[in-house]
Amino acid sequence: MNDNYIELLILAYFKQYNSRYDLTNLKDEIGISFKLLDEYIDKLIIEKKLEYKHYLLSLTVTGRVYLANSKMENYSFNADVEKMHSKEKLSLDTIYCIDEFSKQKWRGSKR
Fold it and tell me: What is the predicted pLDDT for the residue at 86?
């Protein structure tokens, strides 16, 4: 992955979750190791895009400006969750079709 893209994802995560962040969740969302995440966070701290406030990481003004000037300004880590939990209820008579449930063949299938 592009280093700049990963940095923007990290900044977007801290913008969205603020002090409620979870580094394990961040690592899983981005798909990188803890070691690599630690290196990116260290780099962002050196660049003054992240800082420690009261022993918690937070986004700095520089980090917000950097994020605002990118195409990732409005990125949300839970955009798909909002679509999945719509308030519209389906009737029990409605057939619910799952799109792209699995593109891989099932185990034991002959295809």
Answer: 56
- Give the CATH number of domain 3-79; options: 1.10.10.10, 3.30.360.20, 3.40.47.10, 1.10.3730.10: 1.10.10.10
Q: Give 57: exposed, middle or buried? Use CB within 10 Å, 0-12, 13-18, 19+.
A: middle
Regions of the chain short of the pLDDT cut 70: 1, 79-90, 96-111
> Amino acid identity of 14?
F
Question: What share of residues in the chain are helix, strand, coil (percent, to 5)?
Answer: 50, 5, 45
Model pLDDT, residue 81: 47
